[in-house]
Structures are given as structure tokens and as C-alpha cells.
Design a protein that fits this description.
This protein has 21 helices and 7 strands. By secondary structure, the protein is α+β, with helices and mostly antiparallel strands. Among the domains are: 88 residues; 283 residues, ABC transporter involved in vitamin B12 uptake, BtuC, CATH 1.10.3470. The strands form 2 sheets. A 5-stranded antiparallel sheet has the order 4-3-2-1-5. A two-stranded antiparallel sheet has the order 6-7. Helix 5 packs parallel to helix 7 and helix 11 packs parallel to helix 15. The chain starts with a helix and ends in a 15-residue tail after the last helix. The relative contact order is 0.08.
């Protein structure tokens, strides 16, 4: 029995030893990955032999840290120096009697030193070859696919013929389809810049067509102008034509995106005006100032948050939305109860009165906040952009489109699912019959005007993220808002949506050919001609009653 326990103990110790050894072996790559790149680079300093330099290059390649790539490139190009006083290593360039030095890892400027105080790290052809191989291993065979993708993009831009061999080795070992495609594009770019046979260059030119962007287009144009081989030149020209067609397509898609973005802004500015004009028949020239009040409410909220609770800044727009609705809605309610209700049935007087109110509101804001633009910050989640094909899509515009659709659907739900909405629709279709049925039409008018003004304030919150917040902010959207409402159909929300998006896209397609101002004039003329054929707009209200 004792022998049995001894054997078990021995076996357990052996298993533990094997597990420990396996763990140590598995940890070695992690240690290598965690090596400090700055420490490795500093090993190039001092008077050392070529074999010692090659050993440091091998260590850099084994680390797998892409941060070492700039230092290795500087070494290959003969720009890596070490200072005699402390053997610190820098990237240096000559400027008169001095050397301008930068950090080999971060690229930050480190000042200047006399030329006599630094010595170049010695290199030869074998070291250059070792650096090229190390760069290929370091950047193109990193463990992270995203890192390999960035490395392939960098190699593509460099179009260095010396990277062909490392690229081919990386292509053989690559398993990620996206990275593989980018590696093949980088290899094609390097071949175009090399002295490879013309047949290979022709194949490389065809391969670049799949990339389809402007960088590939420029490479192919340079190659087509420089090559003497007719086959390679024809292949390059065919690829150029294909890329130009691809770029033209994505340019149109970009215009559509810009148009939808502009359309969402017009929708936000016009949607409140649509229900106000539709229910009450009031041409409110102060509607743009409701938008402006919403933008300034956002500014005030952000200033308060910056001063008292900076940690709330990412939520500043969420806080500003209900406040902007209440502020603009209250001002609209005061306008309706104090002025507009006395002018029903007198459109000219109403237009002039609301125009006067707009001037008063602008001057009041100038008095309180000053005439200059005010800064309204973008939260982190609304900053930046991303690529779709060759399109650039900014997060703030994308969120505004989403927000405009949410506001549209919310207002649609209010009109179709609430008692107030039912009464508003009844007044819109037949005011006298609604009054005869017991609906308090003056109360509906007041609530409608307040609702429309509140939505305009909400629009101001969104517009503060893409436009200058100034007293004249709303004036830039009032005419466009009226065009959207008239084109879509007075009082019809679906018509407002279609009208806003249509006019937004049309404007953006006309701008490259006619300019911004002339483009708007053309749109206005087209709407006037359209109204001649369909006076009630694209989606006319059915059963609408016009008071005498």
C-alpha cells in the first residue's frame, strides 16, 4: 500500500512538472509580446558589431509590437542615431550644423543636437534585408487581424518593392479574408513600383481595380503614364475606367446621403409648421425663432453642466430635449393666446405680426447672449465618422436622421392615438363641423400652436449639433420649411416627410452643377410650377373644408 502511494505521489509530481513546463512555454509568446519597445530600440545604441545589430532586429521582430516599425524603417533608411553622451537612440535628420531628433517610438520632437554629438547606427545590405524581413513579420503577421489590416494599408500606401517578398509570405500564411484581400492589393501596388516583368505589372493593374478607391486610381494613372509596355498600359487604363465608374457611383451615393441628411434637418424644422399651418392656416414667420430658442436652450444646459456637473455632459442633449420643448412650446402658447388668436382670418396681418415677433425674439436673444455664435459641444457618441464603401458617414448626421424619424413617428402617434390628435384632425378637416360637435376649437388652436412650437424647439437641439447657434439660426430654415409643407401637402405629415427628403436630395444633386444659391432658386421654381398643377401639394388632405 505504501508503494502504491509513493507511485501516486511520483506520478502527480511528474504531471505537475509537465503542466508547469507547458504553462511556461505557452507564456513565452506573451512575454515576447509584452516586451517594452522603447527598451528594444535603445539596444541599437553604442558601438556594436553588425551581428549585435542583427540580434536586436531579430528581438524586435520576435516582439510582434508594431510600435517598433518606425524605428526599424529609420534604421533601414540610415536615419537612426545614438547620442555619444548617454547612448540614447533617436531618429535624426540633418539641418545645417545640427541634427533634429525625434523619439523613435512616438515620433515626438526631442529638440536638436550638434552633429558631433551623435553617431549613426551602422548598417549594411544584410542588415537592410534583415530589417525588411522584420518589418514584414512585425506588421504583417501580428496576432491581431485589425493590426494586420492597418499594416497592409500602410504597406499599400508606401508601394515599396522591397516589401514584395514579405507580402507574399504573409499572403501564404493569412487566414482572414478581409486582410488577405488588402495584402494582395498591397502586393499589386508594390509590383507596379518594381522592376518586375510587364506581364506581372499588367496583372497587378487588374488586381488594383478591385480596390476601387482614389489612392489606387492615382497609382494606376502614374503607372499608365510611366510604362512603355502597351499590354500593361492597356490593363492599367481598363482598371482606371473601372475605378472611375466605381468612384462616380459612390459619389452619387454620397450625394444621396447628404440629401437625406439635409432632408432630416428640413423635416425637423418643418414638421411643427406642418401641423400649425394645417390646423390653423396661420403663416407663422416666427417659427424659425422657435428653432433658435431650442438651440439656445441646449447651449444654456451645456453651460450649466460644464460648470456644475461635467460628468453629465454625455447626457446634455437628453436633458436639453424636454427643456427645449417646454421653452419653445410656452413661447408659442403665449404668442397664440396673446396675439395670433385675434388675427384669425386675416392672413396678411398674421404674417406681418409673426414677422415682427421673430425680430423681437432675435433682438432679445442678442441682448441676452450677444450677437456672436455660441459653441454647443458634441457628446462623444455623436462625434467621429465611419466609412461605408467610399462614403463618409458622420455620427452626428446619422443620429439626427434617426432622431427626425423618431420625432415624426411620435407626432404621428399623437395625432392618431390621442384625444388631442383626434380633435386636431377634426378641426383640420372641417373646423365648423368640429365646433358644432362640441370641440373647443380655440383650445385646439392653442395646443396645436404650442405643440408645433415645441417640436421646433426640439429641432433646435438637433440643429445645434451641425450648425452655428446664433440669433439668426432659424432664418436659414423658415423658407425651406414652408416649401416642404406646401410641396408635401398642407397638414399631411407623410407628405411633409416625403417632401423634406425629396427636396433635400434634389438640393444636393443640383449643388455640384448650379451652386448652393442657384440650386435653391431652381428648386423654388420647380415647386412653383408643381403647385400650379397640384395646388394642394403632393398628398392633399381629403375632406378638407375651407372657411369663407
Amino acid at each position: 500500500m505504501q508503494q502504491f502511494f509513493e507511485r501516486c505521489r511520483t506520478g502527480l509530481l511528474l504531471v505537475a512538472g509537465l503542466l508547469l513546463a507547458a504553462g511556461l512555454l505557452a507564456a513565452q509568446p506573451a512575454w515576447a509580446q509584452g516586451a517594452d519597445p522603447a527598451t528594444i530600440v535603445q539596444k541599437f545604441g553604442g558601438k556594436q558589431s553588425f551581428s549585435e545589430t542583427e540580434a536586436v532586429i531579430a528581438e524586435a521582430a520576435a516582439s510582434g509590437d508594431a510600435a517598433l516599425a518606425p524605428a526599424l524603417k529609420a534604421l533601414r533608411d540610415g536615419d537612426l542615431y545614438w547620442r555619444k553622451s548617454d547612448e540614447a537612440v533617436f531618429v535624426a535628420t540633418s539641418r545645417g550644423d545640427e541634427m533634429v531628433i525625434t523619439d523613435p517610438i512616438t515620433g515626438e520632437a526631442a529638440g536638436t543636437v550638434p552633429k558631433a554629438d551623435v553617431t549613426k547606427v551602422r548598417i549594411k545590405n544584410s542588415i537592410r534585408n534583415a530589417v525588411t524581413a522584420a518589418l514584414g513579420t512585425l506588421t504583417l503577421r501580428a496576432a491581431d487581424p485589425a493590426q494586420r489590416m492597418r499594416a497592409a494599408s500602410t504597406v499599400f500606401s508606401d508601394a515599396d518593392p522591397e516589401m514584395i517578398a514579405p507580402l507574399e509570405a504573409a499572403i501564404t500564411a493569412e487566414t482572414d479574408a478581409g486582410v488577405l484581400a488588402r495584402l494582395e492589393e498591397a502586393r499589386a501596388a508594390a509590383i507596379l513600383a518594381s522592376d518586375r516583368p510587364a506581364a506581372e505589372k499588367a496583372e497587378a493593374a487588374k488586381a488594383l481595380q478591385t480596390r476601387g478607391d482614389r489612392e489606387a486610381l492615382n497609382m494606376l494613372r502614374i503607372f499608365a503614364d510611366a510604362t512603355d509596355d502597351p499590354v500593361a498600359r492597356e490593363a492599367a487604363r481598363e482598371s482606371i475606367a473601372g475605378i472611375e465608374a466605381n468612384i462616380a457611383f459612390w459619389n452619387q451615393m454620397q450625394n444621396v446621403w447628404y440629401g437625406l441628411s439635409l432632408g432630416s434637418v428640413l423635416l425637423l424644422a418643418a414638421i411643427g409648421l406642418a401641423i400649425t399651418f394645417g390646423v390653423m392656416g396661420v403663416i407663422n414667420m416666427a417659427h424659425g425663432e422657435m428653432v433658435m430658442l431650442g438651440a439656445y436652450t441646449t447651449f444654456v444646459v451645456q453651460e450649466a453642466i460644464r460648470g456644475s456637473a461635467p460628468w453629465l455632459f454625455p447626457w446634455s442633449l437628453t436633458i436639453a430635449l424636454p427643456l427645449a420643448f417646454l421653452v419653445s412650446g410656452f413661447v408659442g402658447l403665449v404668442m397664440e393666446r396673446g396675439l395670433i388668436r385675434f388675427l384669425y382670418g386675416r392672413p396678411l396681418e398674421t404674417l406681418l405680426a409673426t414677422f415682427g415677433v421673430s425680430l423681437i425674439l432675435q433682438q432679445a436673444v442678442r441682448t441676452v447672449f450677444g450677437p456672436t455664435n455660441r459653441e454647443v459641444g458634441n457628446p462623444d457618441w455623436m462625434s467621429g465618422a465611419f466609412e461605408v464603401g467610399l462614403m463618409s458617414i458622420t455620427w452626428n448626421r446619422l443620429w439626427i436622421i434617426v432622431f427626425a424619424l423618431v420625432v415624426f413617428l411620435a407626432l404621428l402617434a399623437v395625432l392618431n392615438r390621442t384625444p388631442l390628435g383626434l380633435q386636431m384632425r377634426a378641426v383640420t378637416q372641417n373646423r365648423k363641423m368640429a365646433s358644432a360637435m362640441g370641440i373647443r376649437t380655440p383650445w385646439v388652436d392653442a395646443m396645436t400652436f404650442a405643440l408645433g412650437s415645441g417640436i421646433a424647439g426640439v429641432a433646435g437641439v438637433a440643429l445645434s449639433q451641425i450648425d452655428n447657434v446664433s440669433p439668426s439660426l432659424g432664418q436659414g430654415y423658415i423658407i425651406d420649411s414652408f416649401m416642404v409643407v406646401v410641396f408635401g401637402g398642407v397638414g399631411n405629415l407623410w407628405g411633409t416627410l416625403v417632401g423634406a427628403m425629396s427636396l433635400g436630395v434634389l438640393n444636393k444633386f443640383l449643388e455640384p452643377y448650379a451652386g448652393a444659391v442657384l440650386g435653391k432658386i431652381i428648386v423654388l421654381v420647380l415647386i412653383i410650377l408643381f403647385i400650379q398643377k397640384r395646388p394642394r401639394g403632393l398628398f392633399a388632405q381629403k375632406g378638407r373644408f375651407v372657411d369663407a
